[in-house]
Each structure stands twice: as structure tokens, then as C-alpha cells.
Amino acid sequence: MDPVTRNVHVRVPATSANLGSGFDTVGLALDYHDELEFTLSTDPLNMAAQILITGEGEDTLPRDESHLVVSTFRRACSRFGLSKCGFIMEAHNNIPQARGMGSSAEAIVAGISAAYAFAHDGELDRDVIFQYAADLEGHPDNVAPAVYGGMTVSWTEEGQQQIIQGDVVNTGFRSVNYLVDPGVRASVFVPDFELSTREAREALPTVVPYKDAIFDVSRVGLLIGAMNPSALAQQQDPNTLLFTATQDKLHQSYRAPLMQPSAELIDLLRANGYAAFVSGAGPCVCVLHNGDATEELNQIAAAQLASGHWKVLHLNVDTQGVQVARL
Question: What Gene3D superfamilies does this protein's entry cite (predicted)?
Fold first, then answer.
């Protein structure tokens, strides 16, 4: 099948998963993006991928077929019926690598969305992209907000698989998108050290106390309301709701020794009444707040910011998810 265009621009948001209590289920899209442009070669003999990277990862990411966006794009092109061809990929990266802001989910969603845009006219089929991306990522909590935007709650229905072009594909991923009050913002403190998701996962116990599970269930139920305009209309302080809703006993304490500076910053921010938690697997620290808290948060974390080991991003919630333009 021939592509419908030769040039596609993709814009994918960063994400924060878990949000404290919503371990492995809740994700939030942030107004902070990687942008990529794909240009297909017109030479039928050219099968090479030329990769140009600026910004985050420009000195460390591979510039060959092992690049996650490139390998995903290749697989997705084949899945959508496109013949292999050469292309140029220009990546302008803002999302930090291995920090808990969804860089791998962004890469997978970008590759699939670009391939879809080359293979189809019209709007993206976000459900198709979500299913494929979650299958490649292995879990849906980061890819869901990257695809749909806003806040998502995702889960997996077991035993739902299909054979697609010889591959066993898990088609049981599901996600619901929830409204987020326009006043809710996220401040993300980004450290100068990394933590692999594998290490963070290995730090978790295989069994947790029953009372801790109940604790998180109650908080994640509140989280949906704390982020939702209908709940915020009630006569309760929205920041108090966010503070309580982001409490957790399932994962953060077990991972704290792997990122002690992050744990200390979370304790400091929460001691001052702010809804701080580990972003994804860490080591970024995210703070949710309703209204502008830029000055106050900068002041509380002044020592960390002055050390040169941390920076802070004060962000809105992204409500659009992945965007593509055929040029």
C-alpha cells in the first residue's frame, strides 16, 4: 500500500503515572511535548532511517534502527500495510529520559501515530493506537494519557488476545478519560539523576498488607473526584482533596531508598500541605495543585533548585493527547 502523504508531524505529551494512590492505573497528560517530523524517501532503493535528535537525549539516544521510535514506526508501518522505505526522522525532545515522565510511552505512541497517519486519511483512530501502544509497552497507564490527553484510568481484561500478522497481540487494554478542572496544574521537579523502571519495579514486594490496599482504594476513589470539576464545585478546598487523594501506601515507600533525594523532597512538599508524589517510577516529583502555586513551590524547594541538581516545570494539563499533521 502506498502512503497517503510523504511528511507527517507528530506531537506527543509527557505523562505522569500513578498520581500517588492510583498505582499502575491512573495517568495524567502534561502540557510538555516531544515533537517529531517524519519524511519518507521517494527513492525506492533507499531503505535507511536517518535520525536527527535535538534536546533531551541528543547525546545518548541511538541513531539507528534500535531507537524506540524508529523500531516502533517500522513495526507499525508493517501492521498498517505500508511497504518498508527509507525516511528521515527529526526529533525535538523536551521530555527527560528515564525520569518518570513517560518518555518510553511517548516514543511508542509517536511511532504508531506517525505510521497510522501515513497509512490512513482523516483523524487518528485513538482506540487502535492505544491498544497497539499498550501491547508494545506492556501496560496502559502511561500510553493512555499520551493518546487521549487529560486524566485516564486504565486496566487490562485478561485472556483477550488476537493473532495479527503472526503476532500474538493483547487486545484487552481498556481506558476511561476523566475531566480535569481547568484550574488544576502540575509542577514537576526534575532531578539530574535517572532511575530505570526495571529497578523501581524490582523494589516492590510481592505481597502488601490488606489495610494498605484498602488505604489506596479509598484515596484513588477520591482522586477522580478531586480532579473533576463537579467535585470541585462542592464546598471543600480542592487542594485539601488533592492532598488526601494522592496519599499512598502501595509503592512509594518501597522505592524511596532508590531515590532518596526525591523522597526527601516529597516529604518537604507534603509537610507544607502540597499534593506531592513520585511521578511514574521516578525519580521526578510531581505536585498537583488547583490554582497558581509557582512562587510558593519555588520557595519551599529553594535549596534543591539552588543546588543545581533539580529544575522545576510548572505545567498545565494537556487535554488533547497525541496530535498529527500531514504536511
Answer: 3.30.230.10, GHMP kinase, C-terminal domain
Beta bridge partners of 154: 175
b/e burial code for range 192-230 (CB count within 10 A of at least 16 → b): eeebeeeebeebeeeeeeeeeeebbeebbebbbbbbbee
Enter the C-alpha cell of residue 25.
Answer: 492505573
What is the model's pLDDT at position 235?
Answer: 60
Mean pLDDT, residues 267-276 taken together? 98
Q: Do 299 and 150 fall into the same domain?
A: no
Region 101-119 average pLDDT: 97
Asked if residue 130 and residue 87 are part of one domain, the reply reads yes
Q: Do 294 and 215 belong to one domain?
A: yes
pLDDT at 155 over 90: yes
Which pairing describes strands 7-17 and 323-326: parallel, antiparallel, or unpaired?
antiparallel
pLDDT for res 164: 64
In the chain the first and final C-alpha atoms are separated, in Å, by 19
Q: Is 160:143 a contact under the CB 8 Å cutoff?
A: no
* Mean confidence (pLDDT) of the chain: 94
Residues 37-68: pLDDT tens digits? 999 999 989 999 999 999 999 999 999 999 99
Q: Are residues 114 and 87 in the same domain?
A: yes
CA angle at 227 for the pair 222 and 231, rounded to the nearest 5°:
70
Which residues does 62 contact at the CB level (< 8 Å), separation at least 6?
51
Q: How many domains does the chain have?
A: 2
CATH number of the domain at 83, please: 3.30.230.10
What residues contact residue 133 under an 8 Å CB cut-off, 6+ apart?
A: 105, 108, 109, 112, 143, 146, 147
At residue 237, the pLDDT reads: 86
* Structural domain of 194: 184-316
Confidence of residue 233 (pLDDT cuts 50, 70, 90): low
pTM above 0.85, yes or no: yes
What's the pLDDT at 10?
Answer: 98
Same domain, 136 and 270: no
